[in-house]
Amino acid sequence: MESDRELVENEDIEVELVLDALLKKSDYDYRNYSRSHIKRRLSHRLTVSGYNRYSDMIPDIIYNPQFLNKLLSDLSINVTEMFRDPSFFLELKDKIFPYIKTYPFVKIWHAGCSSGQEVYSMAILLSEDNLYEKSQIYATDFNREILDVAKRAIYPIDTIKKYTNNYQQGGGQNSFADYYIADYDSAAIIPSLKKNVLFSFHNLVTDGIFGEMHVIVCRNVLIYFDKELQNSVLKLFYESLVPGGFLCLGSKESIRFSEVEKLFEVVSSSEKIFRKRVC
Ligand SMILES: C[S@@+](CC[C@H](N)C(=O)[O-])C[C@H]1O[C@@H](n2cnc3c(N)ncnc32)[C@H](O)[C@@H]1O
């Protein structure tokens, strides 16, 4: 019989072997994601498959492409919505837009943009403040399928009620209906909001800096990373920002205890907005 300690140690070994197999078969590197998140997602696939141990999944990862795809989609969390956490967007308008107004052009990077709703929320607020024309938005994710959804920008009509509510609470000035074209069960974002948005693949684990950005928005992504990976991604963001550039994280995320903590000033502690210090 395994002791409780052995049980946990052996389970950890199995998880590492599963993640190694995943990396070798798919190029997705989940080794530095939060172990509790990974275990939760793997446990789900374990139950559905009727296996007893994590390591029972390894032959399927290697030899069964359908299983591999299912597992990869289990691990990918793409939950998002327009004007998610409306108070963040109020703060964006209040604390960041006044600076943007003084720049001749603005480069904004949405890292981990999922299906694009956060990006189009930004585009709407920029256009309402006459800032969209001088903005270039780069929106990246490491999930190619979700990037295709983002580029299409067609969302289920039953999400619109919630999005409209969020838009109003997030400082929207017009009617949200101005920004989509409804068609039976879907709502398509109007083309003018897509004009200055470039979607592309970027993996925060393996890819490098992304140019000189004025604003980086990376919300609800770091929460899935372990401390080491959070630290290296925060360094990547620091290096990708101009001096005085802004970093926006999700409500449960932080730069505290990272190597870059002292290199940023806190702009909004509640909405997790930070500004790169001008040395
Ligand atoms: C929960 S969604 C957050 C979407 C949006 N930022 C929001 O807050 O509504 C997390 C996104 O991060 C992406 N992601 C996770 N790991 C990533 C990585 N290593 N590189 C790039 N994107 C990643 C996922 O594919 C997913 O689309």
From TrEMBL:
Statement: the UniProt record of this protein carries the keyword Transferase: yes
GO terms, molecular function: S-adenosylmethionine-dependent methyltransferase activity
Domain CheR-type methyltransferase: 3-277
InterPro entries for this protein: Bact_Chemotaxis_MeTrfase (IPR050903), CheR_C (IPR022642), CheR_MeTrfase (IPR000780), CheR_N (IPR022641), SAM-dependent_MTases_sf (IPR029063)
SMART domains with a match to the protein in the record: MeTrc
Protein origin, superkingdom: Bacteria
Cited Pfam families: CheR, CheR_N
Protein name in the entry: Protein-glutamate O-methyltransferase CheR
PANTHER family per the UniProt record, alphabetical: CHEMOTAXIS PROTEIN, CHEMOTAXIS PROTEIN METHYLTRANSFERASE
Gene Ontology terms describing biological process: methylation
